[in-house]
Amino acid sequence: MGSSKSVYNRDCDLLVIGETMVEFSCSGDVLESDSYKKDIGGADVVVAATAARLGSRVQLVSSVARDPFHGFIRGRLTEQNIDISHVVTCQGYNGIYFTSEDSPDLREYLVHHPGTANRQIVPSLLYDELIEKCKIVYTSSELQSVSRQTRNTVFKAIHFAHQNHIMVAYDPNIRLMRWTLEDALESLWSVLGLIDVIFISSPEESMALLGYKHPFEVIGFLRDRGVGTVVVKMGAGGCMVGCDEGLRQFPLPEDGAAKFKDPILVGSAFNGGFLHCIARGYDSFRAAEMANSVALYKGIKGGGIDSLPTTNDLAT
Known about the structure:
By secondary structure, this protein is an alpha/beta fold. It is built from twelve helices and 13 strands. The strands form two sheets. A nine-stranded mixed beta sheet has the order 5-4-1-8-9-10-11-12-13, sandwiched between helices. Strands 3-2-6-7 form a four-stranded mixed beta sheet. β9, α6 and β10 form a beta-alpha-beta unit. The radius of gyration is 18 Å and the shape is globular. The model has no long low-confidence stretch (mean pLDDT about 90).
């Protein structure tokens, strides 16, 4: 089933299972800069924060190490109205990454260390009631790439949600500096038949994972394999959505893409905006239009979590 799978009233709109990191961003060369802005980051956290800032009830399953960043991370997550009652504290170190808005070709992570905390996102953190009370479960290959245990955690969450008719959303979010393409493919195919909504970027990511560059081909390939709603993200080209209702492309405004200040984690902001709309009962096409607006706002404003929009921001 696609995004039409029932999202009737439950206590939680969106359950995000993923890693939490600390972001250090600068406006110049990462290796030469003497000044960085510190914030929480990571693709999964940005999805959670986007939906929460738009008004969704969001829970996060993650792990935060008891290092000097522990209180900062928990405080920032709480400030975004994310429910962190299932974010555990562990020994070790939190992951960090350094990034620059001047290096868009290197995507989000210019210099990156995953730390050890995310290895503690294990299957025992999940239990039936936690998933049953959610409308949508979201996770990504970023968590799968951490360890064999985190792959098991992702599979457990997706399998249970699928078996209980709870919507599953997933982003393959390929990061080849973290693991091999073979491992990324294995992890994708292990859950592909259980996914309701998939977000995939074109052309590089879709070509690496599926062998297709054109959004039409990507949608056809994934729909043929049981994914109900396929969202192909095309950067400045906007997105294309294929679902039971048909296929439509949603370009960004011509002047909007030209105003992009910072592409960092714009795709994750898009995901959060899309899932917020689905949880509110919008169809996939309306959700895509809203998600484009969220991504555009984030890209133009630039910066970290605080550059994510609220509903009031999008209304102006």
